[in-house]
Specification:
alpha/beta; Amidase signature (AS) enzymes; two-stranded antiparallel ribbon; 16 helices; 13 strands; globular
Length: 482
């Protein structure tokens, strides 16, 4: 499948120039030829996908209307439940788990005639920035297979970059859509917290997790958000706001864009090539009529510390359910009930998940709750207030997605702090519940992609998508292929 836009594919499908079956077969061929090296998919349902594609083609041929996705193949991160399809979260503890129900977003994709091809590789329980903690092994960056694809939605970014599928769903707790999108040269959207239902998403940190799309371009992300956004009564954190026609709104007439530039995003530790590419990208928008406005985010320096206290505390609580009793991995040898818990969890969880559970359990323990977890919540509020003040004078805030382009596999695996700092520019978006997007904006001298991040106020997806789309109409970086 050559790299053409999402809307071009839909036009070909609706005109009859292309069938859903033919497109699905093309995707399956790309997966078959490339997945052995890149390790993007952990499960492929070729038979089910082709059957689904045939049904959509038959409905179209009979003159019946088809959904927004029109027969486009889609794939889903392996922490999003699909009935009858294994959902492992990249963990041994859920290696054989087959959910009896589908996530809200999976049902929405099928309702809009997406063709579900399979499940995508990820860091174990979405805890990581390189997809190296997966029991299936790391996903590899199509631009350089010796480099990381990012994480935790690394498989999703690889699937788009390598042309295996045109649309995917990932999840973003601290940058897990935007950072891999930046590393792999694709477009990735993290919606406002609550904009997309989390029903059927296996929880990591419930106040931070959000499902979102990746695609080649902003149009693809807008289309998928249109399909999966909106209120869901099964998710108590779902915002009672209907989905909008974000695709149509991309081309609406809008006032000149006001772009916030935070000096905190261009501080020490940012790679020079990344900084130059991001500043050039902002300059493109400025030349097209945007106004640059200095803004301050003084509490962003505390974002990493606050994030890892809050996220790990919530992970400690959420992952307590995996006890070897109800479902998931159970140790074969144990002495008593407590030993069963201990052995099952020790065998089932990997080192990074154990590390985060222990950090969270410690932060929530008696005598430390106020000093760590409660203090982190106060810092989170300060970060939210910084953004609220900034968005009084700007529409979006621009900056890098990550401090560097993709690093080599293994480079940071044994240095947790260095790995955690990979998300230094994306974490605050989740802490504040904002929408954010990563779009390709350049290549390093080693031909590795660089991502531009745009952030907007809560529920301001329309303005965010318009700004990102405006950039993509002025540049060609999103058409670059590995």
């Amino acid at each position: 499948m050559s790299r053409i836009s999402t809307l071009q594919l839909i036009r070909q499908l609706n005109s009859g120039a292309l069938t859903s079956r033919r497109l699905t077969e093309s995707c399956l061929d790309r997966i078959s030829s490339g997945n052995g090296t890149l390790n993007a998919f952990v499960a492929v349902d070729a038979e089910g996908a082709l059957r689904q594609a045939d049904l959509i083609d038959a409905r179209r041929a009979a003159g019946h209307p088809v959904g927004l996705l029109a027969g486009l193949p889609v794939a889903i991160k392996d922490n999003i439940c699909v009935k009858g399809m294994a959902t492992t979260c990249g963990s041994r503890i859920l290696q054989n788990f087959v959910p009896p129900y589908s996530a809200h977003v999976a049902d929405r994709l099928l309702a809009e005639d997406g063709v579900l091809i399979g499940k995508l590789n990820q860091d174990e329980f979405a805890m990581g920035s390189s997809t190296e903690t997966s029991i299936f092994g790391p996903s590899r960056n199509p631009w350089n297979p010796e480099c990381s694809a990012g994480g935790s939605s690394g498989g999703a970014a690889v699937a788009i970059a390598a042309g295996m599928v045109p649309l995917v769903l990932g999840s973003d707790t601290g940058g897990s859509i935007r950072q891999p999108a930046g590393f792999c040269g694709v477009t990735g959207l993290k919606p406002t917290y609550g904009r997309v239902s989390r029903y059927g998403l296996v929880a990591y940190a419930s106040s931070l997790d959000q499902i979102g799309p990746m695609a080649m371009d902003v149009e693809g992300c807008a289309l998928v958000l249109q399909c999966i956004g909106g209120h869901d009564v099964r998710d108590s954190t779902s915002i009672p706001e209907p989905a909008q026609d974000w695709l149509k709104q991309l081309s609406d007439e809008t006032p000149p864009l006001r772009i916030g530039i935070a000096e905190e995003y261009f501080a020490e530790g940012l790679d020079a090539e990344v900084a130059a590419a991001v500043r050039t990208a902002v300059g493109v928008l400025q030349d097209a009529g945007a106004t640059l406005v200095p803004v301050s985010l003084p509490h962003s320096r505390y974002a990493v510390a606050a994030y890892y206290l809050i996220a790990c505390s919530e992970a400690s609580s959420n992952l307590a359910r995996y006890d070897g009793i109800h479902y998931g991995h159970r140790a074969e040898k144990f002495d008593d009930l407590v030993d069963l818990y201990s052995q099952s969890r020790s065998e089932g969880f990997g080192p990074e998940v154990k590390r985060r559970i222990m950090l969270g359990t410690y932060a929530l323990s008696a005598g430390y709750y106020d000093a760590y977890y409660l203090k982190a919540l106060r810092v989170r509020r300060k970060i939210q207030e910084d953004f609220q003040k900034a968005f009084e004078s700007v529409d979006v805030i621009a900056g890098p997605v990550a401090p560097t382009a993709a690093f080599r596999l293994g480079e940071k695996l044994n240095d947790p702090m260095a790995m955690y700092l990979s998300d230094i520019y994306t974490i605050s978006t989740n802490l504040a519940g904002l929408p954010g997007i990563s779009v390709p904006c350049g290549l390093t001298s080693d031909r590795l992609p660089i991502g531009l991040q745009l952030q907007a106020a809560p529920l301001a997806e329309t303005r965010l998508l318009q700004a990102a789309h405006r950039y993509q109409t002025l540049t060609q970086w999103h058409f670059q292929q590995p």
